[in-house]
Amino acid sequence: MEVSLHHHRVYVYTGGKAFRPDLPSVLMIHGAQNDHSVWIMQSRWLAHHGYNVLAVDLPAHGRSEGPICETIEAMAAWCGELLDALGVSAAAWLGHSMGSLIALEAAACKPTRSWANILLGSAFPMRVSDVLLSAAQHDEQKAFDMITRWSHSGISHHPGSPGPGFSIYNQGRRLMERQSPGVLFNDFKACNTYAQGLARAQSISQPTLLLSGALDLMTPPKAAQSLAKAISGSQCEVIDRAGHQLMVEQPDAVRGAIAGFLAKAWASQPKVLGDGTSC
Amino acid sequence: MATDDYYRFDTLAVHAGAAPDPSHGSRATPIHLTSAFVFKDSDAAAGLFNMEQSGHVYSRLSNPTVAVFEERMAALDAGVGAIATSSGQAALHLAIATLAGAGSHIVASTALYGGSHNLLHYTLARFGIETTFVPPGDMAAWQAAIKTNTKMLFGETLGNPGLDVLDIPQVSALAHRHGLPLLVDSTFTTPWLIRPIEWGADLVYHSATKFLCGHGTVLGGVVVDGGRFDWMASDRFPELTQPYEGFHGMVFAEESTVAPFLLRARREALRDFGACLSPMNAFQILQGIETLSLRMQRHVSNALEVAHFLESHDHVTKVAYPGLESHPDHQLAKRLMPRGCGAVFAVELAGNRAQGRAFVEALQVFSHLANVGDARSLVIHPASTTHFRMDEQALKAAGIGEATLRLSIGLEDPVDLIDDLKRAFRVAFPKRP
């Protein structure tokens, strides 16, 4: 669906179902240079299994209009404003890579907006290598090649995503090509300069799951450990035979982990959520 | 051109899409000869039917062996995915039927395989899809032919019968200015000689029966989607941008940003028309693809040697092969397909219909049949076979002479091929005493 926020068009994929704020909402936030479609094998299932799915295209990404948010804090604030505009008081915040930092920031700053957090392919600090950052700034095609190479665990993926006959590599590459010039560098810079991750993690009170790909070269499982230790009661799960793009490389395993965690987290929720204060 | 590849061509040709069989460790791709696949449980079944999960349901829709072929072709042709079909003709129909319907219009090159021309000119017209044919090199004609109901531009990398080289960068740029995709038949060239998607094409298809299989054994086809065309930005494709009631009201362009064409093609055209590829055939084609670059190098070098021989022969008036400097598209071919121009070309003998026929019948190494892209060298004399009903004038209008031959150069020793041709010349053009 399309909504307007600050007079700009925002695209939110709802998993093939109508917007239903009476159901438990799940906000899904993509990573750098991506859009909502990276969640295709999780979002559609969740929407057809009792959740109100909001897989968003961040500003200047996918089908959402700009202006671009330059920092993780600004992106988190924008997501919160989007939920407000939609009349959604709280959601489970799912974020991949850069999106995981957005979820972390938002869940810490306004706890009542989140009833659970799932951070996929996360790390803190989420430093981007100098060579990749430079390529993102000066030669995006080269950066896309690097990301494509480093984000996947192997040459073949089964089952294919979103179905048999698809090239996961080339889909990821083409999706990055779709974004406007400058978006990648902005996103990487935002990840690189985000400094408050550990402090935010220490204030997280909601049930939180960290999901990592066992073969992730961009954010290896050990890079998520500082967050795992800082978030009280957090759980960690490592998805076998998956790299950084774990949602497309192991869609069933990721969906199973998400579904199981959300079901438990929602069941443990007090049914009335109060207003919180913004930090 | 920059490549998208993590691995290089030859590695992808052997490995892409395939992994050792997790059940038994089979290293070669297993042939999954099964009509259907057992559901883990009812919820998983529902998930598969509603595209909430990935997997196989019924072999008309997808099959693990066929999927390896599809994923390999996507990797080799720089696409986001592919759909295999029962033949090259089925691939062309699948591409068209996914985007066009009654009231639609196509602009196509005049230089097409006869079967494709038939489909567009006669068969699809019967179903309300009209085609305007334009000379492939006439950009003004392409432009002038585009209408408000046009759905695609279509041509062949090397067009029949004169091997016109399609200027893919120019034609695709024109198509994109009008919010249209360019569909390209790359059967004669294979991804080893040109990857049309890297030059601007949006959809590519092959008759896999030919060089991809390479051994003249099985039939198959495949459509590859480049994933760059912005369907949402064009107002011509409600098939992809509006809810499709035939599949739970799905809006394909919302589900996948880069591959909505493939989602609909599999969930409608493949499902409903049913022209799926047999897993046995997919296996055979995969065997061929593993040696594609090795074979194509030999096909091309043999073809060039034979073409040079023919061009210099007294009883030959014309050799239409872009690898020769005499071909009007030679420079364009060098730019778009620097590895060579394939191994199929037409040669016009300085003789009549009877001499053409005598020439073909005298050949011993070349096989006289209606196919191309075999390991064996092949020949056909259109005036006495595919176009035998046409008189001289009608043949001329189709760009075919009475003694025109189409050759498909195989993998034999080129010296033996040239000796075979010399023998045929002696029979068809006997020296007067």
Helix content of chain A: 25-40%
Write down the oligomeric state. Answer: heterodimer
What general outline of chain B do the C-alpha atoms trace? globular
**Termini distance of chain B?**
58 Å
Q: Kindly, what is the distance between the CA atoms of the first and last residues of chain A, rounded to a whole number of angstroms?
A: 30 Å
Report the major sheet of chain A.
8 strands, mixed
What characteristic shape of chain A results from the CA principal axes? globular
In CATH terms, the superfamily of chain A is Alpha/Beta hydrolase fold, catalytic domain
Beta fraction of chain B? 5-15%
Count of helices of chain B? Answer: 17
Count of DSSP-assigned helices of chain A: 11
How many domain units of chain B? 2
Please give the order of strands in the largest beta sheet of chain A.
Answer: 1-2-4-3-5-6-7-8
Tell me which CATH architecture of the largest domain in chain B applies here.
3-Layer(aba) Sandwich
Rounded average pLDDT of chain A: 93
Topology pattern of chain A, helix = H, strand = E:
EEEHEHEHEHHHHHEHEHH
What is the structural class of chain A? alpha/beta
Task: Give the CATH class of the largest domain in chain B.
Answer: Alpha Beta
